[in-house]
Write a structure and sequence with these properties.
The structure holds 2 protein chains of 2 kinds. By secondary structure, chain A is α/β, with parallel strands linked by helices. Chain A has 9 helices and 10 strands. Chain A has a 6-stranded mixed β-sheet with strand order 6-7-8-3-9-10, sandwiched between helices. Chain A starts with a strand and ends in a 6-residue tail after the last helix. Chain B has a single domain, classed as ABC transporter involved in vitamin B12 uptake, BtuC, CATH 1.10.3470. In chain B, helix 2 crosses helix 9 and helix 6 packs across helix 8. Chain B is globular, with a radius of gyration of 19 Å. The N and C termini of chain B lie far apart (43 Å). Classes of the chains: A alpha/beta, B mainly alpha. At the A-B interface, helix 2 and helix 3 of A face helix 6 and helix 7 of B.
Chain lengths: 243, 287
C-alpha cells in the first residue's frame, strides 16, 4: 500500500453517552477510494466532521501526509487539501453556480482570481455543470446541487475528497451519471472516501470497504468480501452469524 | 416651490442618513451583527477628525485621509479581539456587548473631550450654494449626497465584483460551509467591520461638518441609521440609500407641515414600514 494520505489513530468522540467515534483507526492511501457503510446513526458523518475539522476529537490524532492536523480548524485543513461534500447540499444560494465554485478555488485552493476562474471552468466541465454556470445555485435540481457540492469541493484542489451520501435521492439514471463523473475523478489520482447507502454505486468505485456501527469499525477489506461478511448481514439484516 | 425645495433638501440629507446606515447594513448583511455602538463610533470618528485637524493642521475633508484608515484598523481589531467572541446562534451577546461598548465610548469621550458641543470647520464649503431652477442647493449637502452614492456604489462593487465580496457573501450565506471552503470567518468578519468603520469615518466627518456634536450624539445617529436600514430593506445597500432618502424626505415634509413634526414624521414612516413590510421595501435577506 502507498504511503497514507490520511491516518486516524485511536480517534474518539462522544456526545454525552453517545459514542460516535470509538478509538477509530483508519488509513487511506494516496489515490485510493475507500467506501464507508453503516446504519443511520453509526457515526459515518461524524467521522467526516472529525476529518474535515468541523468538530474536534476528544482524543486520538489525525495526520494528513504525516503532518498532525488534529488541532487545525476546517479552513486550514481545506487549504491543505482535505475537502468534503455534504449529505444535504449546502450551496451558497445567493450566488451563481460559477461563483460558488470560484469561492472554493480562490480560498480553499488559495488561487488568484484568474486561476480561480480557470479552475472553476475546468471543474464545471468535469462535473457536467458548465451549461448551468450562470444559474443561481438555488434554482438547481437535486442532481445538479449534488454535482455542485462535488464541483465546489473539487475546486479547492483537494488531494483527499470526502463524499457524504452524494448518490442519495437520485434516480437510477442520475446515479449512473454520478458514478461516471466520480470514475473520471479517480483518473486524476485524487483519494476519495465515500459514505454511501446506495451500495451498488459505491461498489462500482471503491477499492476498499469499511463498515461502521456504534462508532466502531466492525469490518474492513475487499468490498465484495465485506459485503458478504457476517458483520454486514448482522447489521443490515439482523441475521446472527450462526443462525 | 416650497414643497419641491423641502423634498430636494430631504433627498440631500437622506444621503447622510444613508452614510450612517451603510456600515450597519454591511455588517448585518455579512455577520447578522446588530451594532448598538454604531452611532457612538460615528461620533468617535468625528472626535478623531477633530484631533487630526488640530494636530496635523488638515482641513475637515482632508482629515479623512487619516481618519478612514485609523477607523478601519479599529474596526478590524475590535472585531477580532472582541466581537468575534460574541457571535453564535444566540443574538443576545453581541447586542449586550455592543451596548456596553456604546456606554464605554460615550463616557470615554466625555472624560477626554468634556460635554461641550463641537463642530468641524469646512470653511466656505459650509455656506456655498447654487441656484437650480429656483431652488437653492447647498454644495455641502450635495457633496454629502454624492459621497453617499459613491460609498454605496463602491460597497456594491466590492460585494459583487471582487474576491473579498464573494467571501463576504459566502460567509453571510453559510458561515460553516464557507469555513470548509477555506475561508477564515474571523478574518472575513474583521475585514467587514474594518470596511464598516471606514464608512463610519466618512459619516462621522460629514456629521461633524453639518451639525454640532458631543459625546452623547451617537444614539440619535444610530436610530436614523437603523430606520434607513429597515425602511430600505435588510442587507440591501442600494435599498439602504433609498431608505435614507425616504427618511430624509419624510422628515423634510413633516417639518414643512409643522417644524415640530420633523423627527416624528420620520419615525412614523419607519413604524409603518416595520408594521406592513418588516423586511423593508427592498429586502435582500429573508431571515
Amino acid at each position: 500500500m502507498a504511503a497514507p494520505i490520511i491516518r486516524l489513530s485511536k480517534v474518539c468522540k462522544r456526545y454525552g453517552a453517545i459514542v460516535v467515534a470509538d478509538a477509530i483507526d483508519i488509513e487511506v492511501a494516496g489515490g485510493e477510494a475507500l467506501g464507508i457503510i453503516g446504519p443511520n446513526g453509526a457515526g459515518k458523518t461524524s467521522l467526516f466532521n472529525l476529518v474535515a475539522g468541523t468538530v474536534k476529537a476528544d482524543s486520538g490524532t489525525i495526520a494528513y501526509r504525516n503532518r498532525d492536523i488534529t488541532s487545525l480548524n476546517a479552513a486550514a485543513r481545506c487549504r491543505l487539501g482535505v475537502s468534503r461534500s455534504f449529505q444535504i447540499p449546502h450551496p451558497f444560494s445567493g450566488m451563481t453556480v460559477f461563483e460558488n465554485v470560484v469561492v472554493g478555488a480562490a480560498f480553499g485552493g488559495d488561487m488568484s482570481e484568474r486561476e480561480a476562474y480557470a479552475k472553476a471552468v475546468e471543474v464545471l466541465e468535469l462535473t457536467g455543470l458548465k451549461a448551468k454556470a450562470n444559474a443561481m445555485a438555488d434554482s438547481l435540481t437535486l442532481l445538479e446541487r449534488k454535482r455542485l457540492e462535488m464541483a465546489r469541493a473539487l475546486a479547492t484542489g483537494p488531494e483527499l475528497l470526502l463524499l457524504d451520501e452524494i448518490a442519495g435521492g437520485l434516480s437510477e439514471h442520475e446515479c449512473r451519471e454520478l458514478v461516471a463523473a466520480i470514475t473520471g475523478l479517480r483518473k486524476t489520482g485524487i483519494s476519495i472516501v465515500w459514505i454511501e447507502h446506495v451500495v451498488h454505486a459505491l461498489l462500482a468505485i471503491v477499492d476498499r470497504l469499511l463498515v461502521i456501527d456504534f462508532g466502531r469499525i466492525v469490518a474492513e477489506g475487499d468490498p465484495k468480501t465485506v459485503m458478504a461478511s457476517r458483520e454486514v448481514s448482522e447489521i443490515y439484516l439482523g441475521i446472527e452469524a450462526d443462525a | 416651490m416650497q414643497w419641491i425645495n423641502a423634498i430636494v433638501q430631504g433627498v440631500l440629507v437622506g444621503g447622510l442618513y444613508a452614510l450612517f446606515a451603510a456600515g450597519l447594513s454591511l455588517i448585518f448583511g455579512v455577520m447578522r451583527l446588530v451594532n448598538i455602538a454604531h452611532g457612538d463610533l460615528i461620533v468617535l470618528a468625528a472626535f478623531l477628525a477633530l484631533v487630526v485637524m488640530q494636530t496635523l493642521g488638515l482641513g475637515a475633508l482632508e482629515s479623512l485621509v487619516v481618519v478612514i484608515p485609523l477607523m478601519a484598523l479599529l474596526g478590524y481589531v475590535l472585531q477580532r479581539g472582541l466581537l468575534n467572541l460574541t457571535l453564535g446562534s444566540d443574538i443576545l451577546p453581541p447586542l449586550l456587548v455592543t451596548f456596553g461598548l456604546s456606554v464605554i465610548i460615550q463616557n470615554g469621550l466625555l472624560q477626554v473631550f468634556t460635554a461641550d458641543s463641537r463642530r468641524l470647520n469646512a470653511g466656505a464649503l459650509e455656506v456655498a450654494t447654487f441656484n437650480l431652477a429656483g431652488i437653492d442647493i447647498g454644495v455641502l449637502p450635495l457633496v454629502m449626497f454624492l459621497a453617499a452614492v459613491a460609498v454605496i456604489g463602491v460597497l456594491q462593487f466590492i460585494f459583487y465584483r471582487t474576491a473579498l465580496g464573494r467571501a463576504f457573501r459566502a460567509t453571510s450565506d453559510d458561515a460553516d460551509v464557507a469555513r470548509m471552503m477555506g475561508l477564515d470567518n474571523r478574518h472575513i468578519f474583521g475585514l467587514a467591520m474594518a470596511l464598516s468603520l471606514a464608512v463610519v469615518a466618512i459619516a462621522g466627518v460629514f456629521l461633524a461638518v453639518r451639525t454640532n456634536f458631543d459625546p452623547a450624539s451617537g444614539p440619535a445617529r444610530l436610530i436614523f441609521g437603523f430606520e434607513a436600514v429597515i425602511i430600505g430593506g435588510l442587507g440591501n445597500l442600494w435599498g439602504t440609500l433609498a431608505g435614507g432618502v425616504i427618511l430624509g424626505v419624510t422628515q423634510a415634509i413633516g417639518a414643512q407641515i409643522n417644524p415640530g413634526w420633523q423627527l416624528l414624521a420620520g419615525h412614523l414612516v419607519f413604524l409603518l414600514v416595520l408594521a406592513f413590510r418588516p423586511t423593508g421595501l427592498f429586502p435582500r435577506i429573508a431571515g
